[in-house]
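Need Rhodopsin domain-containing protein's 3D structure for a figure. Predict it.
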Amino acid sequence: MLANTVADVSEDRGLTLWACITTFAILSFLAVFGRFSARRLKAAPLAADDWFILLALIWVWALFGIFVACRQNGLGKHRAVVSEAQLSQFYYLLYYFQICYVVAPPTVKLSLLFLYKRIFPSRRFHLVVHTMALLVAMWGIPSTFISIFNCTPVSAFWTRKGSCLDFKKFGIGYAIVNITTDFAVWLMPMPSVWTIQLPTSQKIALCLIFLLGLFDCAAALTRLVTSMLVLDEKDVTWFYSTGFMWSVIEVSTGILCTCLPTMRILLQHMWTKRVRPSNGHEASDSRVLSGRHDKAGWPQRLSSGGGISYDRTHSMGHEDCSASNDRWFEVPSSRGSDVELNPVGHV
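Structure prediction for Rhodopsin domain-containing protein:
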């Protein structure tokens, strides 16, 4: 029995924490880098969705930096082998970690909602987007204030001298709202996809891209089940380690899924350059990716190797739906500018 107790106390989740948190932090950086590279490739202007996702990336790397510091103060080890000085510093760092985490998911959701505005031209859908964005803000802002001022005085969070809200109850309540809004935001464009004048196969493909966002929901749900519901204040450095890991995984997964529609431009461009010989096709592709438009707002591009140009003889708001797989959702809006629904457009 004593041998088992000693073995249990000596457990350390350090390797798992380092591997998972570092991997997802790097993946989130690559996703945002790819997104901004695609914007530059298309000479497309940066908009609110880009700035929000960049802000979300900053939160991820803030979480990573705090994780590194917490790791030096016992995170992933049992409380029994952590000194009082380390524990005090751990609580101090935990205070900032939970603030960064509370802010991060709403930031990702706002980026996705503003991306929907680029993609879908419907004013009715824009109203839904604005309503959901308002709800996300009304949830995120108060939650942030609660995470900052949940103790009186604030320093009681790490000194344990004062009164604090029940951190576990707050964490569970926040997670439930977070997961609910995740599902709502990721599933809300599905009905609008089927109203676009496109072949069914392309509608299904777009739906699948948005359904990948359910991985973000799964990560948030896993964080709730594996960390918040089993939180034990008596062994905080051990049980909080799972929460640290899944917090970074959740936000990073949200960033990855949100960047997928835009990154497809870059991936398609890289694939085209790799597989097509230099026999004139590349010149055509460069025109496809140049982002130039004619006076009517239609992209000036040639069809090559399966790419199909739009039929500019059609009236505004209509398109030739006999396009190939590369012709994804770049429909001109009633204002004469393109609604960015095409991976070779400005999404």
